[in-house]
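PROTEIN SPECIFICATION:
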Amino acid sequence: MATSSDLEQLLAAFRRFAVHGDTKATGKELNGKNWAKLCKDCKIIDGKNVTSTDVDIIFSKVKQRTARVITYEEFQRALDELAPKRFKGQSKEEALLSIHKLVENGEPTNIGVTKVAKTATVDRLTDTSRYTGSHKERFDESGRGKGREGREEIVENTGYVGAYKNAGTYDAKAKAEK
């Protein structure tokens, strides 16, 4: 049967996929989308014996009736059901070991994710040194946005008119006259 280190690696793979794409995830529950991603990235889905439909059906079968996620124990039951389907020529134990080997070192991939477009048009439109008028005020010398200071006129309650050059010199003059 599987050793404890194999089960630890299986749990680690489960947690990696459980937190993938969700900043609030704890790693204790796997949703249907990440379950399908695990099966695809770990090559459980081969298109012949196991398809994405099979994966979705098994997910629905092992989860609680009203739940939208599966726990680690339910995950193991799902692998138990997928193993003989994926590895038809092997015994149930051999198939289970083979499917564990597929999942153990699996990690979520980001292949096919949208990349940043790098064209001359995009470069020209995002070059802040060419901005004029009020848009120019929204960026500093390095091209980084100033945030709120660049979009709004921040009111200074100093008692002086805006852009007054000698602001803050009244107290010095008042002391000098005494």
